# Entry
Amino acid sequence: MLKKELLIGVDLGGTNVRAGAFTPGGELITANETPIDAALGPAAGLKTIEKLINQVILASGQEAAAIGIGSTGPIDRVRGLINNPYTLPGWDHVDILSPLRARYGVQVAFENDADAAALGEVWMGAGRGVSRVFMLTIGTGVGAAYIVDGAIYRGLYGEHPEGGHIPVDPLGPACYCGGNGCLESLISGPAIAERAVRLASEHSRGYLGGKLNDPQGIDAATVFAGARQGDADCLSLVHEVAATLARGLASIFMLLLPDRVLLTGGVTRSFDLFEPTFRSSLAKYNVIIPASRVDVRLAGLGQRAGIYGAARAAQQLLE
Ligand SMILES: [Zn+2]
# Structure
């Protein structure tokens, strides 16, 4: 008889879906991924997800004990619905849990993808071994999650912390959340690119000025490449981003006093560039809280954090 202890973790994003099969000890047996065309609608999407789950179950040669889904938000965890007109257009009030429960006859966990990724890091990645882990994802947006003693912190109505919308500059750009100068509107990839384009048009010199013939092509990576070449405008932008990140994290430190902060997402691939300014800016806050004892480091599981965390969420349903 096949052992029925396999944990399946699924990470549903706007363009890709990943799935992995794990042992109860957190060992990844097999993983797979496939593009998802959200525009084809939820029914086609569900078929893609099922196909992927079937593949990893088959490849592992065991039976699933539980399934976890980490999904791009917004989601309604309590009712098990994806409410996502943004990254999954047309997926509004979509129930993917009931069909999966019926199809596989197991419990299905459902989490926001940021929460799932942080849970994965705490289970098998860079968040192991400490009690309070805060994770910040800096990419197209800025997302946050907080894991306390191995469990996802849940706020009112089960909502998770929106660390990207901590206001850090009241005079900063307007954000879609209704605020001004949120962390996300200052340090996300698109925010960095926008300020680079502005700098380029103001100065029309240096590394950025040289890219003005194609302003659409300027992104955060352009700024980091320029900084590596020693361009003054790019370096000043990098320092600004580093100081802003420190200011945002200071609020989080003051309130939550985490043991560890994990940074992940596309922008953090260039963390070495802004790390010195970031650490010296953060050290200023060491007077009333032990900021220097908070261990800030890069996350460890990369794009697989989501499937790890979804599998761990599935396992928690069985505990
Ligand atoms: Zn905001």
About this structure: DSSP finds ten helices and 13 strands in the chain. The longest helix spans residues 232-256. The CA atoms of residues 70 and 113 lie 4 Å apart.
